[in-house]
Amino acid sequence: MDLEVKQVFFSYGDVLALDGMSFSANRGQIVGLVGENGAGKSTIIKNIYRYLSPDSGSITLDGKDIFSYSSGAYPVSYIPDVPVFYEELSLLEHLCFTKAIFPQGDGSINEMLDKLDMREHQNKIPAALSKGTRQKLMIAMAFMREYELLIADEPFSGLDPKQIATLKALLLEQKEKGKIILLSSHLLDVTEHICDQYVVVKNGKCLLSGSKQELLSATQLPAGSTMEAVYLRLVEQDEMSG
Predict the structure, then answer these.
(1) pLDDT digits 0-9 by tens, 100-135
(2) Cα distances (angstroms) measured from residue 198 to each of 29, 53, 68, 183
(3) What is the pTM of this model?
């Protein structure tokens, strides 16, 4: 197991956010992290990204505790749910800055400008960009660095259908290169055809994980049911058992 989250607990003061969270993800897979607001998705992502540190439990990448990696050697890239920029730098300067820090990354500046249709905006500062273009800039910066694990927290937010299709294609390209992709999104219809595995989260715990077929079997739903139906059935079963 290339990424393993094992019995992770985390609290914000007296509020328990992660209650023994456990799941795994392998190379060459897109793993969908599914759950309602407040379920613990962003908190576990921030622990994996090392922005936060678990109160207890372990997170390993390639069998190595993630906190044992030096800051420059931790092979993880991150698309945050809220874009963060240097407000005085143009779009192009953001890409140049990223390339200067991570020269070994696969993505080139010209490739990102063209693939994400940003060339006409390259000299604009973030305040002059639309919400969708700001999101595309965050995506480009994440793809340009070198990594083995890509964490994408609500990456489709603010994107139009064409932009969503482009991002899905980019994610599938990275999957084919053997990367691990952890994808958190409320848009289950968007993620349904690209995710290999799902981790369904509620109240800081993993309700169930597996392929769509395995989740269909667990929920006794017929073949052809949507992931939205699977998710709602799992939540219903959990509430009834609770």
Answers:
(1) 988 887 778 999 999 999 999 999 999 999 999 999
(2) 10, 24, 27, 9
(3) 0.92
- As a whole number of angstroms, the distance between CA 83 and CA 140 comes to 12
26 three-class SS:
coil
Report the DSSP pairing between strands 29-34 and 197-202. Answer: parallel
205/35 Cα distance (integer angstroms) = 10
CA 241/CA 7 separation, integer angstroms: 21
| C-alpha span between 126 and 130 (Å, rounded) | 8
Read off the pLDDT band of 236 (50, 70, 90): confident
Question: Please, which residues have CB within 8 angstroms of residue 48's CB and are 6 or more apart in sequence?
Answer: 3, 5, 59, 66, 76, 149, 151, 182
- Tokens for 94? 């953001």
Q: Which residues are within 8 A (CB) of 35 and not within 5 positions of it... i.e. 6 or more apart?
A: 41, 200, 201, 202
